[in-house]
Write a sequence for this structure.
């Protein structure tokens, strides 16, 4: 069995211009006061990999160009469409007005487990990822359609925001692109 690692040239990467033309999944990622620029960059990179429509950066969330974001984004801050808005609650209202189903990624009473959510390829979604310590603001949780919780089975019941984002984005990609 051949297990030779592929060369970069063999990965069939698209150019920046080609990426911009590729059909994206109907998913917008909202970062609500994410403080770590490395986490922000990681969300950009994951969003590039799985064809996220847009990232909306809110509150204290840093914006490109930024050397620390670039360290983990590796240029995906140039490929993924993004915008900055001061108030996450305003963004959620605007997304809902545009027909998006908005979910906060948070552990709450009556949250939906990620493996139980039913997605429709014909609908548009937004997921809100929150601050590394405080999570998604309660007012944003209240304004969301519901919350999605990633099932966890160990002694810790929290994940790094970029890891949580990666898991959620991948799950949405599998259904919405499939």
């Amino acid at each position: 069995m051949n297990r030779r690692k592929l060369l970069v040239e063999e990965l069939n990467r698209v150019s920046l211009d080609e990426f911009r033309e590729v059909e994206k999944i109907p998913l917008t990622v909202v970062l609500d006061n994410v403080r770590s620029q490395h986490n922000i960059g990681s969300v950009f990179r994951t969003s590039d990999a799985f064809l996220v429509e847009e990232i909306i950066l809110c509150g204290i969330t840093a914006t490109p160009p930024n050397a620390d974001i670039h360290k983990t984004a590796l240029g995906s801050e140039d490929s993924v469409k993004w915008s900055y808005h001061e108030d996450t609650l305003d963004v959620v209202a605007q997304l809902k007005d545009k027909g998006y189903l908005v979910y906060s990624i948070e552990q709450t009473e009556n949250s939906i487990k990620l493996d139980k959510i039913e997605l429709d390829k014909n609908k548009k979604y937004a997921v809100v990822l929150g601050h590394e310590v405080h999570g998604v603001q309660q007012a944003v949780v209240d304004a969301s359609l519901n919350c999605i919780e990633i099932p966890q089975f160990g002694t810790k019941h929290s994940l790094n925001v970029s890891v949580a984002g990666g898991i959620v984005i991948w799950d949405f990609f599998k259904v919405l692109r499939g």
